[in-house]
Amino acid sequence: MPQLDESDVQAAYSRIKALVLETPVFSSQALNQLLGCEVIFKGEHLQRGGAFKARGAINMVYAQPLSELASGVCTHSSGNHGAALARAARARGVAAHIVMPKNASPAKRRLVGHFGGHLIECDNSLEAREKALRTLAARTGALYVPPFDAPLIIAGQGTALLEFKRQTPELDVVVVPVGGGGLLAGSCLVQDRLMVYGAEPEGASDAARSLASGERVLAQTPDTICDGLQTTLGVLNFEIIKRRTTDILTASDADTIFAMQLIWQFTKQWVEPSSAVALAVVMRNRSVFLGQKVGIILTGGNVDLDRLRPRLLDSQQIEHGMALLADYESG
Q1: DSSP run (H or E) holding 250
Q2: pTM of the full structure
Q3: Pairing with 310, which of 107, 154, 190, 232 sits 20 to 30 Å away (CA)?
Q4: Exposed, middle or buried: residue 305 (CB in 10 Å: 0-12, 13-18, 19+)?
Q5: Spatial strand order in the sheet of 73-76
Q6: Which CATH number is associated with domain 6-51+150-330?
Q7: Is 106 left (phi over 0), alpha (psi -120 to 50) or beta?
Q8: Residue 118 pairs with which residues in a beta bridge?
């Protein structure tokens, strides 16, 4: 098992800093008053390609000599990693082959194509994705760039928190969404004194169950609107997470939709459900975060509005939810 530490994240940052954006941090006084803590957002949804995934993909692609990339790169992805890899490959002048399930977000499929990726469709299960990828890699000889379970990917994703800490050194806690665990594991490598929490949808809670049991949960049929968080934890990711993560908290899809619309309303930032779950767990666990400076990494903004529209809350529902939060505060 590779041993990673902050020096790997620092090396990744040196490699990628000219190729990624230093994304902004921002806050909302109205949200802070509702939650009883100071929430500071890191806007990785504004990253090139619309997601933090750019950091890991660029780090791994640019760590390779061009001779290793002669046949291109390949991966499987529900969307954001595939788009990030396609963009990184285009920047290095090599081909990118992206396996995506049939139920992947149309917006994210279009983004892969926008960056010049060759999209290969497969059935919706993880097994189907991995089988299609093996066939593709054998046929093309392309280098596999994992979505999350690789040292260079984890180190690259950790640069988001490395940057966040420099921008906002007074943070007490950081909350990050967790799917495969690349961002959470990378954040753990640079946490120092920070408490680090993972945020996960109830309908895909393998990471929370894995941390609670001490054994990586592999069997899962995800049922969540958070399409970027449906996969199970990677092997290396789990080894880091179980040693260093404070806890993994979950939220329902209803909580997440409410949190997402609050972010839209109060910060005017367009984020996807897989980002908003981090705010949702803070809202559900007010006593854990009360009075603290809480950093939230907003991981992506590639929203499929057609798929989301039937789940959105109307203005009365939003006001009712805000009133409940205010009642909690006064009580």
Answers
A1: strand 247-251
A2: 0.94
A3: 232
A4: exposed
A5: 118-122, 96-101, 73-76, 143-144
A6: 3.40.50.1100
A7: alpha
A8: 97
User: Can you say whether the dihedral through the CA atoms of 36, 42, 44, 46 is positive or negative?
Assistant: positive
Residue 289 tokens, joined: 């975060």
Q: Are 120 and 152 in contact (CB under 8 A)?
A: no
Domain 53-144 has CATH 3.40.50.1100: yes
Query: In a structure prediction context, what are the per-residue pLDDT tens digits for the chain, which is 331 residues long?
Result: 679 999 999 999 999 999 999 999 999 999 999 999 999 999 999 999 999 999 999 999 999 999 999 999 999 998 899 999 999 999 999 999 999 999 888 888 999 999 999 999 999 887 888 899 999 999 999 999 999 999 999 999 999 999 999 999 999 999 999 999 999 999 999 999 999 999 999 999 999 999 999 999 998 889 999 988 988 999 999 999 999 999 999 999 999 999 999 999 999 999 999 999 999 999 999 999 999 999 999 999 988 888 899 999 999 999 999 998 887 654 4
Q: For residue 327, what are its two tokens?
A: 């009642």
Domain boundaries, the chain: 6-51+150-330, 53-144
* DSSP sequence for 25-61: EEE-HHHHHHHTSEEEEEEGGGSTTSBTHHHHHHHHH
The tokens 């041993």 sit on which residue? 3
